Amino acid sequence: MKERTLIENVPPLIGKRIKICGWVHSIRDQGNLAFILVRDRTGIVQVVTSGSVITEHDIKNETVVSIKGTVIEDKRAKSGVEIKLEEIDVISKTVRTLPIIVNEKAKHQRLELETILNNRVLALRNPRRNLIFKLQGEVIDSFRTFFREHGITEVTTPKIIVSGTEGGTQLFSVDYFDKLTYLAQSPQFYKQMLVGAGYERVFEIGHVYRAEIHNTSRHLNEYVSLDYEMGFIQNEHDVMDVEEEFILSLIENINRSCSHILKEYKKPLKSPKKIPRIPIKEACTILEKEYGKRSKTLDLDPNGEKLICDWAKAEYSSEFIFIDEYPRSKRPVYTMPKEDDPELTRSFDLLFRGLEITTGGQRIHDYDMLVQSFKDRKLNPSDFDYYLDTFAYGMPPHGGLAIGLERITCQILGLANVREASIFPRDRNRIIP
Predict the structure, then answer these.
(1) pTM
(2) CATH number, domain at 268?
(3) Closest CA relative to residue 17, chosen from 83, 89, 78
(4) In this structure, are 242 and 302 located in the same domain?
(5) What angle do CA 38, 140, 207 make, to 5 degrees?
(6) 231 falls in which pLDDT band (50, 70, 90)?
(7) Residue 286 half-sphere exposure, CB side, CA atoms within 13 Å?
(8) Mean pLDDT, range 155-173, rounded to an integer
(9) Confidence band of 1 (pLDDT split at 50, 70, 90)
(10) DSSP run (H or E) holding 228
(11) Cβ-count burial of 114 within 10 angstroms (0-12 exposed, 13-18 middle, 19+ buried)?
């Protein structure tokens, strides 16, 4: 529709005859006069007509219409203009009663999350809910732009694999012709192999799959992972340095391009001067001293993550905090142990507003050490020859991380459940729509 005008471009066109297309957002029929709010992907505008037009064309909320009319000034309208209707064409009628409210009245309709997800496409027509994935698109674009500008190669890796990358049994099996294969938990092995292939630094934006039997507000069984891997590092702090630079860049971009979304969700995003970094041992000590919370192991439960973020905000004015030096038992087989204490690792998490959004660290690059690590975990190295072979022919010191796209979106906007930040979520009970 070449002659179509997007609603965001209507205000400067006072006195012009234009054509708009979209959904009927709401109707206010006052008999002689009627006001129709029309919504497209860029905004909402008011159309003025006679009440008979509504009944004559059987117009209801969410009817898809094409409207021609003249733009007139109206300072009472939110956009400062409205359209005086001249022609209307009903493109597509609503043939069922709406199961949920889409327009501004939706804020007064209390819906269970399951109801929202069961009616996902209709629910996403709600302007406020629709903003979630416009912001998420900016996160993806910021990640891709940042790493391309830093000379890092974007890659795509297989999602059907012969063995797990994280260990354990949390794998979805796939019947692949006459072979048993799995959906990838992570692109980890392939990222490392591509570092060894001479690319040195790679990044990927892709789906990963975890067959974890959980049902929490923090977990999904399919999610989007923002990964990068970099060679010739000194230790895990080089990886953290790059992520910190990216986070500062992301905050700048989101504040510039999505300020209206942050305002709608009442979630200002402040850039920290420096993201603090503390070992997990120190974090556990702080939790016990400041909050009376004792940890049985060197790890953080959800409440511990929240409290240590509260502490970082009070001490450093930062809503982010790096926690590093996790125990070997808590990290994957390829994680580099510390030289002075092999039971600890050169690994880290990044927490944001009380939730872990990143896991990363330095990887083992020595072939013999990596083979022994597999044996220590009671894994057969020969099952991973396709991966280990890379290390037999020279591998630089390297490390990387993975950022959960849905989690960081959820935390930026202060959503109550990570499923709200997944456009079509997959959990243990949901595989449609």
Answers:
(1) 0.95
(2) 3.30.930.10
(3) 83
(4) yes
(5) 105
(6) very high
(7) 20
(8) 84
(9) low
(10) strand 222-231
(11) exposed
Share of the chain above pLDDT 70, in %: 98
Q: Are residues 85 and 141 in the same domain?
A: no
Check pLDDT > 90 for residue 164.
Answer: no
Is the distance from CB of 131 to CB of 433 less than 8 angstroms?
A: no
Whole-number Å distance between alpha carbons of 321 and 182: 34
- Domain shared by 248 and 339, yes or no: yes
> Mean pLDDT across the stretch 401-420?
98
Q: Compute the distance between CA of residue 399 and CA of residue 233 in angstroms, rounded to an integer.
A: 7
Q: What is the rounded CA–CA span in Å between residue 407 and residue 224?
A: 10
Structure tokens at 177: 């012709």
DSSP 191-207: HHHHIIIII-EEEEEEE
Q: Tokens at residue 293, please?
A: 């919370």
Domain assignment present for residue 107? The answer is no
pLDDT in tens, 60-116: 999 999 999 999 999 888 889 999 999 999 999 999 999 999 998 777 778 899 999
Residue type for position 399: G
- Contacts of 374 by beta carbon, 8 Å cutoff, 6+ apart: 333, 380, 381, 384, 388
Encode pLDDT of 331-367 as tens digits: 999 999 999 999 999 999 999 999 999 999 999 999 9
Contacting residues for 378 by C-beta, under 8 A, at least 6 apart: none
Asked whether residue 134 is assigned to any structural domain, the reply reads yes
- Residue 54: inside a domain: yes
Q: What pLDDT shows up at residue 165?
A: 67
- The residues facing 277 across adjacent strands are 322
Q: Quick one: 32 and 140 in the same domain?
A: no
Specify the DSSP class assigned to residue 392.
T
Structural domain boundaries enclosing 233: 127-421
